[in-house]
Design brief:
There is one protein chain. This protein has 84 residues and is mostly helical. Helix content is 52%, strand content 0%. The radius of gyration is 17 Å and the shape is extended. The protein starts with a helix and ends with a helix.
Length: 84
């Protein structure tokens, strides 16, 4: 699963992509490892109106809006931390 993509990522960037897939014998709901991290990030994006739908014409603009949203989120979290 993911053969060419895995090879390309490893060769181009040195990244190792781990694909969390469901077991074939699983029945019903099964918690997949680390999937919640991705789902949580998508939930954060829904708080930003411009990211709730695909309004942008260029993919670069969409990427920029995601970066702006994450920067905003991280700055708010840093500001909320108590001084040590």
């Amino acid at each position: 699963m993911g053969g060419q993509l895995l090879e390309w990522l490893k060769r181009s960037f040195g990244w190792v992509l781990e694909i969390a897939s469901r077991l074939a014998e699983a029945v019903g709901f099964e918690l997949l490892p680390r999937r919640w991290v991705v789902e949580r990030a998508f939930g954060w994006f829904n708080r930003y109106r411009r990211l709730s739908k695909d309004y942008e014409f260029l993919p670069a603009t969409s990427e920029t809006m995601i970066l702006v949203a994450m920067i905003h989120l991280m700055v708010r979290r840093l500001r909320a931390c108590p001084a040590r």
